[in-house]
Design brief:
heterodimer; A: 389 residues; alpha/beta; Rossmann fold; five-stranded parallel β-sheet; 13 helices; globular; B: mainly alpha; 2 strands
Chain lengths: 389, 299
């Protein structure tokens, strides 16, 4: 029996090795003559599918518009879209395929930090740039030693910034002195957010009265929430995605916790409203933009007309990432990925989430303010633009 | 950490633990039931639970049937699914006397298949919310909150488990189930129809899966990866003694309480670490689990 198990395992191992070995065979230098191929990666299935679908839809729509106007540099644009299933190793495979097989000039996405972090090595190996949409972990564009990753860019602000904004706003504007944190210990996003919230909140003079963790996939947060309740905080930070937000906010209210909840860009979703409308009433969200901004209207309307779906946050970010790439290709006057990479830090575009000018030091957009949004009777009510140093 | 712990805090954590444990228990019994006869872990059970949760959801939202009817449809639907899987996947293996490893791998395959067929279908990967059936305001006992769905879950779990025990201990079919769990060969010689026993085992497991799925959906939410949570309940079943129904229930409740108490009094980071260190310890000291006696006394 044992022999059979072992031989089965070894056969499986050999298969895996063969498959992974095939990945990076071809080189990238050639791009096709008359079309410009742009890759996109992100989650089309899994927990984050709502966002990935919206991103790829937005890019499809933009490519159609650009092509109708004659394309970029007189060439038609073609999009290639791969599902990462929310998985980092799938993201690496998708990038390898996009570069070596599809010969794309640049890649847009993914929407999550975990996947964006995983693909850097491949990008550097093949020298093709990637513009992440909502990957907010600082390490996405910067190495551990502080040097910039040459081929990773992004159009969103970073986690520390969201955490710092949330902490600053809670302490200075809302006057809260005691904060509790519930966060996802297995998520880079949640950890980065938490770390900088703590730093800013305590440096301003506030106290973190409880800090509890959970793991992605958990559905019951009451043991942690009961503990948080005992610490009696004014505000609870929930830096994670909407499914867990919906479950944990409902459970918090069931346990009789009345503290204000505050979160980040993982919250906004129609799903959250259907599931936890009452529990999140009066909560604050730090977000990349305000949904009611008149400047966002044309994009919202076009998307709604084409897909009959509401445009999620990721659509706006994907739009800006695409505009940035379009400007860079024009500036480079070339479809060579290395030249496009150089141009990405030279151009400045007016996107729907603000002006985007990429810093050469860390490849993050410079000086973006965050929008503070309050949830009132099931609506996102814009409070103000708020930034911290 | 958070100052002096009060009695009400302790009671609240006990209730939290019981509530989490009862979710595991309903799921774990299905594993034990199949294991007691067929001697393999039916990992597809998680998929059946997930489909049960979706059936309940669509009965309530699209067909708009009363809650009680939705419950029955969901239980029967999941039962039917479990039986068809037995027919399509396990029976051919059984007829060929395939080694147990093939059963486990087929079960894993079936589980992944079920998850992906939901994702690929128009239902899609997004999570869905049951319409509110009961008030979400909890019953307050002093400062201790007891959720209404939790209470319902205790009651329904207790009734289903009692019914199951009654069938196994007191009825004629129960006798043949017990006989088969001792020895398939021996009971066949005594005139027990093993195919029929396995059919009944799967339909009972499926019905429990449907009930568990619907309760899970009401309490939390419905999504294609629900099956993953059954890893914990499978572990609870092993903890309690795989193949023993009281063991599965006991192991599940215990796991729920250990998890909650670790989160509540130490740190939530240590939750899985301590719970599973304890599990390994139990299995090293007593390989049959807490209540599993020996191979002669299963079911």
């Amino acid at each position: 029996m044992r022999g059979k198990v072992l031989s089965l395992i070894s056969v499986l191992l050999i298969f895996t090795l063969m498959l992974s070995g095939c990945g990076g065979a071809n080189s990238t230098s050639n791009t096709s003559e008359d079309v410009i191929k742009i890759g996109w990666i992100g989650s089309l299935t899994g927990d984050q599918a709502v966002w990935g679908t919206c991103e790829s839809n937005t890019i499809k729509m933009l490519i159609e518009e650009v092509n109708a106007k004659g394309g970029i540099l007189g060439k038609q644009v073609e999009g290639v879209y791969y599902d990462t299933k929310g998985d980092a190793s799938e993201a690496v495979n998708a990038v390898k395929r996009l570069i070596s097989q599809d010969k794309v000039v640049a890649i847009l996405g993914p929407n999550a930090s975990g996947q964006a972090l995983a693909i850097s090595a491949v990008l550097e190996q093949y020298k093709v740039p990637d513009i992440a949409t909502v990957a907010t972990n600082p390490k996405v564009t910067v190495n551990d030693d502080g040097t910039v990753k040459p081929y990773n860019f992004r159009v969103c602000f970073i986690d520390p910034y969201q955490g710092a904004v949330a902490a600053g706003y809670a302490y200075d504007k809302l006057g809260y002195k005691n904060a509790a944190i519930l966060y996802d210990v297995a998520s880079d996003y949640s950890q980065g957010f938490t770390e900088f919230f703590e730093k800013t909140f305590t440096s301003k003079g506030g106290t973190i009265v409880a800090k509890e963790g959970f793991k992605e996939g958990d559905v019951d947060f009451r043991p942690q929430l009961s503990k948080i309740k005992e610490a009696n905080p004014d505000v609870i930070l929930m830096p994670y995605y909407y499914k867990e937000v919906a479950l944990s906010s409902n459970q918090a209210r069931e346990l009789g916790i009345t503290a204000t909840l505050i979160g980040g860009d993982g919250w906004p979703s129609d799903q959250l409203m259907t599931m936890a409308k009452d529990a999140i009433e009066g909560s604050y969200i730090v977000n990349h933009l305000d949904f009611n901004d008149p400047e966002a209207k044309p994009l919202q309307d076009a998307y709604k007309a084409k897909y009959n779906l509401p445009l999620e946050l990721n659509g706006y970010m994907a739009n800006d990432a695409f505009l940035l790439l379009e400007a860079a290709i024009k500036d480079a006057n070339s479809v060579d990925p290395v030249k496009i990479t150089e141009s990405l830090t030279k151009v400045s575009v007016k996107g729907v989430t603000g002006n985007i000018q990429i810093s050469t030091e860390d490849h993050n957009p410079v000086g973006k303010e965050a929008a503070i949004v309050k949830i009132e009777s099931g609506n996102y009510i814009f409070q103000e633009k708020y930034g911290v140093k | 950490m958070t100052g002096g712990y009060k009695l009400s805090y302790f009671l609240q954590q006990i209730i939290n633990g019981l509530s989490i444990g009862s979710v595991y228990a309903l799921m774990a019994v299905g594993y034990s039931l199949v294991y007691s006869i067929m001697n393999f872990s039916n990992f597809a059970h998680g998929g059946v639970i997930m489909i049960g949760a979706y059936i309940g959801y669509f009965c309530l939202t699209m067909l708009k049937v009363p809650f009680f009817i939705a419950f029955i449809i969901s239980a029967l639907g999941a039962g039917l699914l479990a039986v068809s899987m037995e027919r399509i996947v396990y029976r051919p293996l059984r007829k060929r006397n395939a080694p147990f490893l093939y059963f486990i791998i087929s079960a894993m395959g079936a589980s992944i298949f079920l998850e992906n067929i939901v994702i690929a279908s128009p239902i899609g990967p997004t999570f869905r919310t049951y319409p509110p059936i009961f008030s979400t305001t909890p019953i307050m006992l002093g400062s201790v909150a007891l959720g209404r769905i939790d209470l319902l879950m205790f009651i329904i779990s207790a009734i289903s488990l009692a019914a199951l025990m009654y069938i196994i201990e007191k009825t004629k079919i129960g006798l043949s189930i017990r006989a088969t769990s001792y020895s398939i060969k021996g009971s066949t010689l005594m005139g027990v129809n093993v195919d029929q026993v396995i059919f009944i085992i799967f339909i009972m497991g499926g019905i429990l899966a449907g009930i568990a799925g619907m309760l899970f959906g009401m309490k939390y939410t419905v999504y294609p990866q629900i099956g993953n949570i059954t890893t914990k309940s499978f572990i609870a079943a092993v903890f309690g003694g795989l193949g023993s129904l009281p063991g599965a229930v006991f192991g599940s409740i215990l796991l729920g309480i250990i998890e909650t108490m670790t989160s509540g009094y130490l740190s939530s980071q240590y939750r899985d670490l301590i719970a599973f260190a304890l599990l390994i310890f139990v299995l090293v000291v007593k390989p049959t689990g807490l209540m599993g006696k020996s191979t002669e006394d299963k079911a």
